[in-house]
Amino acid sequence: MKQLPLVFEAPRKGKPPKHWLDLTLDERRDAIVGMGLPRFRADQISRHVFDRLESDAENFTDIPAAIRGELGEQLFPPLLTHVKQQTADAGRTVKTLWRLHDGSLLESVLMRYPSRTTLCISSQAGCGMACPFCATGQGGLKRNLSQAEITAQVLAADQALASGVVPGTTGRLNNVVFMGMGEPLANYNAVMGAIRTMLEPSPNGFGMSARGITVSTVGLVPKIRQLTDEGLPLTLALSLHAPNDELRDELVPINNRWKVDEVVDTVFEYAQTTKRRVSIEYAMMRDINDSVEHAQQLANVLKRRGDWGWVHVNLIPLNPTPGSKWTASRKEDERAFIATLERRGVPVTLRDTRGREIDGACGQLAATAAQPALP
């Protein structure tokens, strides 16, 4: 089978405008001093952003009115333009399509559960990993998102929650998962900068817990090792999707560079170092990777690394893209796969499916919006 090229360097387009959310605490204070304002104004501005969830400088009422326009132009340029929004699950799932300054599109999905609110965010416009069953991967990589463009998705979600957009909640996000468009570890610096802003206590960040943030990867081994060295107790999710090299070479082309054993060894080291259980993401595809034999192979791969305390398998019913040969497994095959893992003692969960009726698979809404209108 001919493999699509893997893209590790994002194409260069117009550089995203510099934003407050791109800056460290010291950089924010330096920027304010550079505008001729006292340093303490930086703390006031951060309280507006992270405590009051305000992103329009004109609303910073304790900042002199004469400087608000310049402040907005220099440090609060528009980042995300709302294009389209779709809801499902009685309004508890909200998928939003955003347009960036250069016309690139990205998606985020806000999901309300009984005990938590989760945001699935994008780290790139498109994706260069070329997984054939993924709408984003087939669309290719447009560019990396900036730190601010990533963080702005979190701010927008908290603003939506505060305004009562999602029934039953007016609070803040509990969880952020980097499972939207793009390969997070291929945009490492921007992703880590955004994560640090999420973790930074108020008033300089969102004050989230590292345990509430999940970073997903198809298996960029050097970047996983770099993430391990960060020493943060983030949850790591490996998009494995196949238990052997022959099949994974086809489903996840990055496997041609880093094979199953090497990538599983690397995430096992992450679990040992951080004391955080790794999630193995496995999209179930009919007659492709969903047989009992595949389940047995998966159990063997994981068991070789030690007892089951380090890992949890998260099975994902595939949300097929229109016209694709890749489709969801039969329910009986899902049940047999799960039963096989459970007999081997492998912790396994079948993911709750959300948003099938709203172009729920990652990249579907952006792909639809990017298509030219028919006459």
From TrEMBL:
Family matches, as Gene3D superfamilies: 1.10.150.530, Aldolase class I
SUPFAM superfamilies: Radical SAM enzymes
Enzyme class: transferase
GO cellular component: cytoplasm
An example Gene Ontology molecular-function term: metal ion binding
Family: Belongs to the radical SAM superfamily. RlmN family.
Other facts noted in the record for this chain: Reaction proceeds by a ping-pong mechanism involving intermediate methylation of a conserved cysteine residue.
Record's protein name: Probable dual-specificity RNA methyltransferase RlmN
Organism: Tessaracoccus oleiagri
